[in-house]
TrEMBL record:
GO terms under cellular component: outer membrane
A GO BP entry: peptidoglycan catabolic process
Name of the top EC class for this enzyme: lyase
One function term, GO molecular function aspect: peptidoglycan lytic transglycosylase activity
Family annotation (SMART domains): MltA
Protein name: peptidoglycan lytic exotransglycosylase
Spans traversing the lipid bilayer: 21-46
UniProt catalytic activity: Exolytic cleavage of the (1->4)-beta-glycosidic linkage between N-acetylmuramic acid (MurNAc) and N-acetylglucosamine (GlcNAc) residues in peptidoglycan, from either the reducing or the non-reducing ends of the peptidoglycan chains, with concomitant formation of a 1,6-anhydrobond in the MurNAc residue
Length: 428
């Protein structure tokens, strides 16, 4: 999964040529929230969450977030004016893809509260109205006409990648397809006030009520693997390989390919409320990752090799991650991100909504050429936290898996906001 990439570029290079090359080998669209982040959070760079969140690679720690605990959002952390949009090396193809994704985000942009504190729904109306009627002539001119850029905090960015896994699976039980894909169970609920301690964000925790009426944590991965949910009619599909399905859960969405070639897309429906543990980090702590005898690489491939060569130990290792993701069948266009609109290969990025308005354009200037240029923040991820932390979406298929799994880029980020936003915020 891990790819070193070309870090020699001295200026931003559009990601679109790389995407056109990917398209030639059959790159498809993706869903779900950040793999490299999830596995990188595990300590291994692996591609494949959370809610909705998707695939990751070996671990290379990213720079520490500029978002201190005392900075709840971008407005509190501080912003300053970035480069003029007209000064950015935006290609026509890059701008066209971003404009299409921006249009799809507009209904949510003008109706939802912006947790970053930078904008209000009304701020986006003029740009969204223009986007709906903008012709094919000059998509870059659209962004020049309606936006200015803001640097959040120090602007130092770290980006990983995610994709939509494609694994063997069937909607009906078949020999060799034994890993159940479960829908959300009805008994997975939030505690009533007074029945449990609130979470740090003030919400009540997820769990279930037992026969005696006491609230308790929900079944963990080991219990579900042992059959805690079997026989309840929750199975919506069965996967052939429990290891591949484990990593699909990390991604938060994917495609199941049946023996007859039928493809079923599944998406994140919920999670059991228990914390995510990255198994790459566990392997590292146990001395299983390295270049010595008996050690494995920290890539997704290395982790999978360990899980398959040592099935008993591998199952126990996967069960160290007590989190379990439930799924639903997806129909229609593309995997859906946190805005409930399709995420698009090479155009959609996951971000922390406390520091980026979801739906806003983002400019990345990284040491990974293929990820440079314009993205639209349309998703979130369990490991995508803090200012200037991003997870780039690369679609589905083998090339997407390789690109996402190897993505680890550092550089700078600018957030596009409607013209006039900086003046209103008192930024000069």
């Amino acid at each position: 999964m891990v790819r070193q990439g070309d870090n020699s570029a001295e200026r931003p290079v559009s990601k679109m040529p790389a995407l056109r090359a990917l398209a030639r080998v059959g790159l498809k669209g993706l869903l779900g929230a950040g793999l490299m982040a999830a596995l990188a959070a595990c300590g291994a760079v692996v591609p494949t969450t959370g809610g909705p969140s998707v695939s990751r690679p070996p671990v290379r720690p990213g720079p520490s977030s500029t978002a201190a605990p005392t900075s709840p959002n971008a407005a509190a952390l501080g912003v300053k004016a970035g480069r003029a949009v007209s000064a950015l090396p935006m290609s026509t193809a890059d701008a066209a893809g971003a404009l299409a994704s921006f249009r799809e985000s507009c209904p949510r942009l003008i109706s939802r509260t912006d947790g970053s504190g930078l904008t209000s729904p009304d701020d986006w109306r003029q740009a969204c109205t223009a986007a709906a009627n903008w012709g094919p002539g000059s998509p870059a001119a659209f962004f020049v006409s309606y936006f200015e850029t803001a640097q959040v905090g120090d602007g130092n960015a770290y980006a990983t990648g995610y994709y939509e896994p494609e694994i063997a699976g069937s909607r009906s039980p078949l020999p060799g397809y034994a890993a159940p894909v479960y829908a959300m169970p009805a008994d997975l609920v939030r505690a009533r006030p007074g029945d449990a301690a609130p979470l740090k964000d003030g919400r009540m925790p997820l769990g279930r009520y037992g026969a005696g009426g006491a609230f308790t944590p929900y079944y963990d991965r080991a219990q579900i693997d042992a059959g805690a949910l079997a026989g309840q009619g929750l199975e919506i599909a069965w996967a052939a390989d429990p290891v591949e399905f484990f990593f699909l859960q990390v991604q938060g969405s994917g495609r199941l390919v049946a023996p007859d070639g039928t493809v079923t897309r599944i998406g994140y429906a919920g999670q059991n409320g228990l914390p995510y543990t990255g198994i790459g980090g566990v392997m590292r702590e146990r001395g299983l990752i390295g270049s010595g005898p008996g050690q494995y690489s920290g890539s997704m491939q290395g982790i999978m090799q360990y899980l398959r060569e040592r099935p008993a130990e591998g199952r126990a290792l996967m069960e160290q991650n007590r989190s379990w993701v439930f799924f639903k069948i997806l129909n229609g266009d593309g995997p859906l991100g946190a805005l409930n609109v399709p995420v698009r290969s090479g155009n959609s990025v996951a971000a922390d909504p406390r520091f980026v308005p979801l739906g806003a354009p983002v400019w990345l200037d990284l040491d990974r050429r293929e990820a440079n240029g314009m993205w639209i923040a349309q998703d979130t991820g369990g490991a995508i936290k803090g200012a200037n932390r991003f997870d780039t979406f690369w679609g589905a298929g083998a090339q997407a898996r390789t690109t996402a799994g190897g993505m680890s880029g550092r550089g700078s980020a600018l957030i596009f906001v409607p013209k006039g936003t900086l003046a209103r915020l008192g930024v000069r």
